[in-house]
Write a sequence for this structure.
């Protein structure tokens, strides 16, 4: 029996190696009064947070197999309708039966009401608390100056601030260094986008981050940008901010 099991696990390992199903490796994002938050990077703008028995998927893309080995989602946060954030194939492939799926109206207009009661529309400025204690506040995300024909018009998408016990985590979505970001207070960890022409350059991102001064910032959604330069600029103004550079584009 033991031999059979070890042969079986060897076969599973070989299968995992040949199909690329390896569970993403987690890292501790921050420690709250109710335990650690673990970060699993998927790619680009997609990641998963795990905290206190709750699993939060942010802009899931890359296919459901990219999430193999991770717990199923309790909360899904969708920021906006661009393809590197909203991917119907991935959403269709994931087990979202127990998930609260949060999105702006424009995303609901695009994908329809496929999630039934669990589908929650949030406008910029609204706040929701799940029964399991996850606080979610929808932030604006937009291009400057705001205009209806901008690549990201104001009100079309949501950034989010998550409250997990005593910690606050900011997820920028696709945006420039807007006032609402610069005015944020008490952010423990921030995920901030940077890449042109879709969001902002590293100079603007660094300037906005130095303004709201999170304890920790992760550049994400930065394809092709000089994140070392971002770190330098942030720390020139605010040496206390911990800039965590990670490879969000490693082949899986
Ligand atoms: Zn976008």
């Amino acid at each position: 029996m033991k031999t059979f099991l070890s042969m079986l696990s060897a076969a599973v390992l070989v299968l995992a190696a040949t199909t690329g199903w390896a569970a993403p490796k987690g890292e501790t994002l921050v420690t709250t009064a109710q335990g650690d938050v673990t970060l699993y990077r998927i790619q680009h703008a997609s990641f998963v947070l795990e905290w206190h028995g709750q699993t939060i998927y942010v802009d899931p893309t890359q296919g459901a197999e990219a999430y193999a080995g991770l717990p199923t989602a309790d909360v899904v946060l969708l920021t906006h309708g661009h393809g590197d954030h909203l991917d119907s194939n991935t959403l269709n492939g994931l087990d979202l039966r127990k998930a609260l799926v949060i999105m702006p109206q424009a995303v609901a207009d695009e994908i329809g009401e496929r999630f039934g009661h669990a589908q929650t529309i949030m406008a910029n400025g609204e706040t929701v608390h799940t029964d399991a204690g996850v606080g979610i506040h929808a932030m604006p995300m937009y291009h400057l100056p705001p205009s209806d024909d901008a690549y990201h018009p104001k009100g079309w998408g949501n950034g989010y601030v998550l409250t997990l016990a005593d910690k606050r985590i900011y997820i920028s979505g696709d945006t420039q260094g807007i006032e609402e970001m610069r005015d944020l207070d008490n952010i423990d960890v921030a995920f901030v986008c940077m890449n042109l022409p879709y969001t902002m350059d590293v100079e603007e991102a660094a300037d906005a981050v130095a303004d709201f001064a999170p304890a920790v910032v992760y550049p994400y959604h930065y394809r092709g940008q000089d994140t070392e330069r971002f770190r330098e600029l942030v720390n020139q103004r605010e040496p206390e901010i911990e800039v965590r550079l990670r490879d969000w584009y490693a082949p899986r």
In short: The domain at 23-242 is CATH 3.60.15.10 (Metallo-beta-lactamase; Chain A). The pocket of zinc ion is lined by residues 80, 82, 85, 152, 174, 198 (CB under 6 Å). Residues 2-19 form the longest helix (18 residues).
